[in-house]
Amino acid sequence: MLMDPTMLAIAAAGLCPLCLYIIYSDVMTMRIPNTALLLMVAIFLPTGYLGLPTEIFLYRLLYTVIAFFVGYGIYEIVTRVGIPIGSGDLKMIIASVPWLPIEYFPLYAYLMIPSVIVSISAIMLVRWALRGKTEIEWIEDPEVRTRKLRVPAGTVLGLNMILFLGIILSGALERV
Question: The pTM is what?
Answer without folding.
Answer: 0.84
